[in-house]
Write a structure and sequence with these properties.
This protein is of the alpha/beta class. It has 12 helices and 10 strands. Helix 1 packs across helix 11 and helix 8 runs antiparallel to helix 9.
């Protein structure tokens, strides 16, 4: 048994979708960091992303985290290799899970919704076509969606209208599968389904990422067994919206939720 926490980070609240999945199936303590001061990551350079990520991982390691989850597609797409080389700690990313599920479920035409930096990297497309060259992968940067989520415009028509507009150019492509290439997007899943069509397959990497976490915990024999797990959430910018969204996404009955002070 190893009750050290799992460290999870994202540019903001999007990674809560991954944290929620891990929380729902384990008894692990969690230390989560949302870099709200520097979001959106999709507009940043690789050098900036690497610098932000190292600063956050250093903090999570200082908190004695036993495993790091990069709950951010932009960082996972652009900095994963460098971060794995730099740190002697297991690091789980969200791109791998999305690619695995897409390869397993997609029929023919795929559309990746993601940030500009993730789209530019073409990582999802490259990894998918290495194994399924028969699949067609279309990419669409959707920068507005992160802002809508971070500003808590979740339960109104704005996300639906934005996704509907982003979808227009693919109306003739017969898309059968959509990849949510940003962990913010599952927060507005209802709007996305309404916009793209309820018959489409939606790939949300949260569950697959949690599978990867569980596998490492088992392989390394570092499962935690906390009777009342503690979930700590920190951010670097706007604490008010961050706290509201975290509490809306997580059920207080799941454990002991602590909203920490603004850091980094």
């Amino acid at each position: 048994m190893d009750n050290r926490p799992i460290g999870i980070f994202d540019s903001g609240v999007g990674g809560i979708t991954v944290a929620r999945e891990i929380i729902s199936r384990t008894k692990e303590n969690i230390v989560y960091f949302g870099d709200t001061k520097n979001m959106p990551y999709g507009e940043k350079t690789n050098a900036q992303l690497l610098a932000f990520s190292k600063k956050i991982i250093d903090y999570l390691i200082s908190r004695n985290c036993k495993l790091i989850v990069i709950a951010c597609n932009t960082v996972s797409s652009n900095c994963l290799d460098e971060l794995k080389e730099h740190y002697d700690i297991d690091i789980v990313d969200v791109v791998s899970a999305a690619v695995e599920e897409t390869i397993d479920k997609a029929d023919k035409n795929i559309c990746l919704f993601a940030t500009k930096a993730t789209v530019k990297s073409r990582v999802h497309e490259k990894k998918i076509k290495e194994i399924r060259p028969d699949l067609n992968v279309f990419n669409k940067a959707c920068p507005l969606l992160v802002h809508l989520v971070e500003e808590n415009f979740i339960h109104n028509e704005m996300p639906f209208l934005a996704v509907k507009e982003y979808c227009k150019e693919f109306s003739e492509k017969e898309i059968d599968t959509y990849i949510l290439g940003c962990t913010h997007y599952p927060i507005i899943l209802d709007s996305i389904k309404k916009a793209v069509g309820y018959d489409k397959k939606i790939i949300d990497p949260a569950a697959g990422t949690a599978d990867h976490v569980e596998r490492i915990l088992k392989e390394k024999n570092i499962f935690g067994d906390n009777k009342i797990p503690k979930y700590e959430f920190y951010n670097s910018g706007d604490s008010e919206n961050f706290e509201k969204i975290v509490k809306n996404l997580l059920d207080d009955k799941l454990g002991n939720i602590y909203m920490g002070e603004k850091i980094l």
